[in-house]
Amino acid sequence: MSSGRHRAVAFAPIRPRPQRRTGSLGFARRSAKVQMSSVAITGATGFLGLHLVRELLVRNHDLIALVRDPGALDRIARFLELVGEPSRLLDALPRRISIVESDVSLPMLGLSPKAFQRLADDVDVVWHSAASTELHDDLESLRPINVDGTRHILELVSAGQRRPLLCHVSTAFVAGARREGVVYESELNGSAGFENAYEESKFEAETLVRDWSRRYDRTVVVARPSILVTDRPPHADLPMHTLLSLGQIMRDAATRLCGTSRTAVRVVGHPQGHLNFLPVERAAQVLARLTEAEHPRRVSTYHVVQGHDVSVRVLMDLMETLAPLQMTMQSAAPAEQTALEAFLDRSPTAAMLSHRRRYDDTRTVSLLGPPTSPIRVDLDYLSAGIGAAPVAPPAPRLGNRS
Ligand SMILES: NC(=O)c1ccc[n+]([C@@H]2O[C@H](COP(=O)([O-])OP(=O)(O)OC[C@H]3O[C@@H](n4cnc5c(N)ncnc54)[C@H](OP(=O)(O)O)[C@@H]3O)[C@@H](O)[C@H]2O)c1
């Protein structure tokens, strides 16, 4: 599955403006609590971004949304209405959110030099959440948004006279194809390769951020959420999320290749496999709190994860409620695969069924305290979030699932 290689990330020097000096420590390092007057955010219309916008607004931050959709404010308003925010917040949106139409994949975000500099000088914090999260895309399609997009955001924070703090949304999946053991927040190591090009592009982006921080002695916050989920049923005003799109792809493939009757498939997995699914609302809360915290390191990387993992068997059960499948786990691919088995074997879901790694979140916990959320992410929770209803009466189990 993994190629074990990754492209060296080309680093084009991004020169920050001259910085204020602070005594014998040399260049000012932003370790003190951030006093925010202006927070910019990319990806504000995305699954995580909408929740982060909500959290930041509720915490009294006014925002500059760097979005490519001119109708973004309406989308944000519809989302806030969906999640039950009061009309006084909705009424205040035009005053509290400035929309800057921009595209992270373009140099200077597609803005004029004057508009780019004005934006850079206006911000104190930039949350960079925009990305392509297409797990099936290739690297060449993903790099312009995920890697070049991050480079352009680094150019923005470099140009800002107020030395804005960059908060970069990465992913726990920069750990790549490493399936076992503990992944630490200090680590960024691509030697195990990657299970898909999305992971690799996010790895390259995080590498760029780290290199920039070291080179220019600038503090950055890197947040690495695990798989973001919700128990809110699918809705037109709530963007697709990973599980929902993976489930739909699987259902379409099963129906196309095998029709609508329940079909037995053998999938490769590990009986002790487990995954970390994090409620997106909690991820947004943690990110909002990270914005306001004091960060002790130049590169402060935080795993943003749920306090408990979920067995990969729950993922199989979930997929069986979405698609007419009866899945049996095996330790290796069968010598002769059906077309559907071959398809599943190549899908990102297949790789997840073998994951046994854990994400150490010591830094997050020491900064923000232990998670207090009583939410239990289980089959019921995940099923609610994909609007799962059984596609056919459950068939008798085939083979040994334990
Ligand atoms: N979802 C997860 O499970 C998960 C887990 C860990 C980390 N993450 C990370 O969290 C971040 C947000 O993910 P998400 O789930 O919210 O993704 P998402 O729902 O796919 O949203 C992506 C956002 O990026 C914007 N965007 C894409 N291309 C852009 C461009 N060229 N210029 C400007 N904006 C652009 C999209 O704008 P439009 O609305 O215009 O398309 C959208 O707002 C990403 O960095 C992702 O890697 C996600």
TrEMBL record:
Pfam families tied to this protein: NAD_binding_4
The record's section on SUPFAM superfamilies has: NAD(P)-binding Rossmann-fold domains
Q: What is this protein called?
A: SDR family oxidoreductase
Record-linked InterPro entries: FAR_NAD-bd, NAD(P)-bd_dom_sf, NAD(P)-dependent_oxidoreduct
Q: Which organism is it from?
A: Nocardia fusca
Which PANTHER family does UniProt cross-reference here?
A: NAD(P)-BINDING DOMAIN-CONTAINING PROTEIN-RELATED, PROTEIN YEEZ
Q: Which residues cross the membrane?
A: none
Q: Which residues form the Thioester reductase (TE) domain?
A: 41-285
